[in-house]
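## retry 2 of 3
previous attempt timed out at serialization; input unchanged, resubmitting
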Amino acid sequence: MSRRYAAGTNVSAEKSRAEIERDLRRYGADQFMSGWDAGGKAILGFRFNGRMIRMLLTMPDPKAREFTERTYGGDYTGNLRRPEDAEARWEQSCRQRWRALALVIKAKLEAVTAGITTFEDEFLAFTMLPDGTTVNQWIEPKLLAAYSKGQMPKGLLPGVGETQ
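## retry succeeded, writing output
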């Protein structure tokens, strides 16, 4: 199994978030917000060419075995780590996720700028619809149903050609 990108990073989550904000501004976003919830998710939102984008970053559970329990040969041993060691491992995982998100966003924006792809292709899943959901939240159940039934959904736009 390959090592995760930025698995050993020392860059704080705060610095990665600030880097994302700078990159978004540099590439043309005119609004930015970030926050978090008690459920273990960080949220980023920005506006680019009039499109509202929302990205969620699921943070690791600090109580997960990978942080709290020692391993031997890849197997959990049942021996608990010291709380400060578990916290350090959890914080490292959070830093890694923020670095990965910074990389993804920068790569998407650079691909758009270079003409390799379009903004819509790169950020469609994260684009907010008028009701506050993202395209991904709206389409995912329809896509799963289409695959399970082997049929195309009736309407491709929210509220058009659908029966409730």
